[in-house]
Records
---
Amino acid sequence: MIITVNKHTRPSLQFLIFIALTIGIIGVGYLIGAAAVIGLFGANVLMDIARLNLTDPNAANALWILQIVSTTIPIITASVIFAYAIVKDPKEYLKSTFKFPWILLVITFCVMVISSPLIEYLSNINQKMVLPHFLDGLQKWMRDTEDQAQKLTAVLLQMKTIWSMIFKLLVIGLLTAIVEEFMFRGCIQTIFTKWTGNMHAAIWITAALFSAFHMEFFGFLPRMMLGVLFGYFVAWSGSIWTAVWGHFINNGTAVIVSYLFQNKMIKINPDDQHIFNYGAYLFSLIIILFLLYLYYNIATGKKQMPVL
């Protein structure tokens, strides 16, 4: 019996197929990336990365190869194959239309800028998370995973020249935003919207999966909040590009601030989570809610604005 998969297939099956497809392509990508690293730098560099021994001068370049070949390219490939070849409805599952009011990009920019205090507040809550004693083993694993992710990120974000910063702005800022939004707000959020029959449930579930995907559990809440914002940007506008824009602003700001701090152009440490006060947290929340209300009204046509 031949099972035909398309957009009318049960969402639960769609989700399983998408996850299996993504894991499979990531596996192939890792083999290709590992082979490239061994060919260029030797097997010792690959082993050092696996042991998180990142002192080798070639470690950063090897990490970039692994990141792009084994993660970035496979994720976008899986999303495109799923949308075009499996469910055969890229319009619904990728939402790549540019037909939306241009003012939404301005509102998205404002939301991302104003969200900084709220992100800090959620980060501080997350950092204080303590699991019950019988879950000490789980908490240690979560902390170790977080530390490993931060160590790898620190290597990837080393920038000594403006050209290095521009490269990482394009890859970490723009390319990562496109790839992850096609995967999460495109394919996965669409699947869960069909599965639950509830847009809000789909957005929050997708945001939780988006945050868990990064394997940084002590940054789970702020990343989930960002996922929720991106989810509503797409759900209300019908376009992935407003979320890509917001995602790019978030990632790009981190890259630029890291570059300026590393080169002693600013004194604000991007890892400092105690910049704002409770007044700023409350102000951030109120303004974000107002901007989302404005975004919703414009995106759903309650206010007529020019379209791109």
---
Amino acid sequence: MHSIYNVIVQISWFFLKILALFNSKLKLFVNGRKHSFYLLDNAISKDDKTLWVHAASLGEFEQGLPIIEKLKNEYPAHKIVLTFFSPSGYEVKKNTSAADVVAYLPMDTKKNAAHFVKTVHPDIAIFVKYEIWPNYMKALEKNKVPSILISAIFNKSHKVF
């Protein structure tokens, strides 16, 4: 099943890059990810302590903001790394003072997930709402990084569950 997921991610990424030629929001989505690793590589050193918070978009950021602020106060020696999936979050909050580093989350491929976790080397990963990315979860588990999902509601009647 995981292999099928990885193929779907690769195919999706291929088509997203094509569709981005015709859609300004998708263009931000695709082009923003081209700079994610450059940004992270230049903002985080191997000696930095980091905490990673991921929000899909602006609404999830707002839900996670009280936790980000609490982490910033409780762990002042740590850099807060904030990632977004959507341009609606990143473009509005890319200069937020709530985090030390703000970037698009690279697509959920095995290679990206391994590189991201190695680069960011978080002490903990916090996902807001329903952001569960299998390759990132596996990379975090492999590196023994605890992961937390916040602000999610699981309902038995929902078709996904």
---
Amino acid sequence: MTLLADLLSTVFERRYRQPLRRKQANRPLDELATDLVGSAGETSGLAIAQDILSGFDELEDQDKIAFFQKIATALSIDPARVREALDDYEKAPSKTSYRNFMSAAEPRRQELFRRLNRVPGATGTLVQMRADLLRLRDQEPELEALDLDLRHLFSSWFNRGFLVLRPINWESPAHILEKIIAYEAVHAIDSWDDLRRRLEPADRRCFAFFHPSMPDEPLIFVEVALTKGIPDSVQALLAEDRAAMPAEDADTAVFYSISNCQTGLASISFGNSLIKQVAADLSGELSGLKTFVTLSPIPGFTRWLKKEGHEWDSSAANDMKADAAYYLLNAKTSKGLPVDPVARFHLGNGAIVHAVHADADISDKGRAQSSGTMVNYLYDLPRVAQNHENFATTQEVVASDQVRSLARSSAFSQTRKGSPNG
């Protein structure tokens, strides 16, 4: 798989490095976009697409907003045409009437993005374009619809079948390692020595998904610690003076950091596939691994406590663990999903809330977001699929008896027994 990824990367990388040059610099980009959608010739279409992509990159924010607004409106659907096509299909279902309905129901701006993507290297540029859209859209209905179009396309372009899993180690290219440092979103990597401690020892692993059209850009990566037993502190995992052990001695794989790298791919989920693939690969490599867990932050916990008017006493670690357990099991959104985003992610993947630990992350960030509390989510591989189905259909939060007992001992449980929103 690594050899295939490298071969693909070489091919795409060579195509990438063709510079984009604007040939119609005086024409507005929205006019070029309309021309591109109506273009029949592939060669002329590529030239127009190159002009749009290179021109967009040069725009100031206010001009990017104007471009988004113009293509969102000028290349949208025609409701009357959609209704007419649907009426025709209802009256006489056929291949032709269905094709006409599909054509009417799809905004022309989706075809615009598909044609832009024909330019070598354009996929990464379009991902950055969506990052700009997410940053600038300000909840305008037309731009929200434009974002849905890009999400729809990206869900196809970045589906699991196109992704390549690569191990990241101390021998990986420096430009990739630099991006791992930059994109680390959970436990900051503060130096090259720090990165080396996470990648070089035999009991450490890192894996990332790449797309062949973006060979130098990790999409998401996970850092893994191979341990004996389930850890209760990230300080111990990342300690400078810790003693590494042979990977063959490990019985537990700990996913202690998962970082999404591309803002423009927000809401395009890779984490589920990444964790399952890494667990499968590690199981094949190391037969002694029996347990697969995370050591995860609880980023919404402190904010929820403040909202509930709760004052934290730093000497009451057990109370904090109990309150965290209650929060993870009972604090829900209006849609019945866990308030905590990391909990939603892992429970949606089929994990269970296994254990809660106080003083597990005493960094400034750890104290700020969860008063130092962390949680293990357990991936019991034979039960993952069923847990996922239960969560998807009933929002059931599966948890260990220990965590349920902790939650019942929380002061919140005593005063709000039976409350659906915790």
---
Amino acid sequence: MSTKHEKIVKYIESLPVGTKISVRQVAKALQVSEGTAYRAIKEAEAQGLVSAMDRIGTVRIERQQKKNIERLTFAEVVNIVDGTVLGGRDGLHKTLHKFVIGAMQLEAAARYIEPGSLMIVGNRELVQKMSLEHGAAVLITGGFEASEEVQQLANEQQLPIISCTYDTFTTATLINRAIYDRLIKKDILFVEDVLANQQLAALHRGQTVKDYFTIVEQTGHARLPVVDEDFRLVGIVTARDVADASVDDSIEQYMSRQLHVVSPKTPIASAAHKMVWEGIELLPVVQNRKLVGVVSRQDVIKALQLMNRQPQVGETVEGMVVGGFEEVWNDDKSLSLFGEVNAQMTGSVGTLAMGPLTTLIEHSAVLCVQRNRKVDMVVENVTLYFLKPVAVDTRIEVRARILDFGRRFAKVDVEVFSGSERTAKALLTTQMLER
């Protein structure tokens, strides 16, 4: 039986895209308290079903697929530029495919306008009208208003016309930054990405130990989730738990209620770290308190290997830090990174900041372990026990050397040199992800 919370989320999902949603409306429609309605709407927002906009309210939007995640809705553009919607509110849920800056003659601008694009322009009414007529939304910069004729056209075309106080360059930069951030997120693999074609294997708490062994034989997983009648996760059972049990005993007698779970939106790297830290081979995936899948150590390893093969579309902070460093493999099987401390890597006093330094140390240690043994791993601990300031434009060497290499872990010593002077020293522990 579905809970009130789940019923509200399903109700919101059934609404047409573009529908405005309020706490009071949902509470009245489903006869629940406003507090319950508010929490469910927030859950729907986390699932990408609705979007909250200043001065507009909450609107039902189309859930974005992973491949289209770099596209912004016009509603999101309003929030990015702190804009005001002058017309065409019914089109706020639509996505923009590209944006065009109208700094050209009218005839020239027409060649660049396509349906689904966003025209960024000042107080040029002819360009605004032409854009709407060609299926493009309009973003007016400089705080200018739109004429009643343009606003009426926007309403007829169901294309937003937005006004913001920023200049054209700042506006375009803000939107480009938002798209750039989406591109970075597109490259990140989440738990939900490995659940797409997965068949869920779980035990109901009324089943027996015999049923457990049957599912283990079918799936190859010795760690299985246990659910109740509504498919809510209530426990975990392993081979060790039922080692001395009779085949006719109820599984509920032996299951563990100490649960380690992840959500579909948990990054694969976080799931990997939790598996290593807790020493488990399988994690249940829970959404709205219901079991929606499991992620195994094999799933995580395959996903991490896929991530390592992907080209980086958007540049991350780590990429900016290590991008200018050259990798050198030494004869003693240590690894060195050579590069200069640029201005972006420094703090307020012009010396190498702790964040970039830690990134370089961790990156060199992981590379060193991977060069010595082809394994997947997660960094478990970093201890920095020696540090001197390093000025901007200084050329440094980050040298990583393995101290101990076990079957499931590695200890790596990392030193940072400026010329012949040692400026930092750290010890890292990594744990292997074994199949």
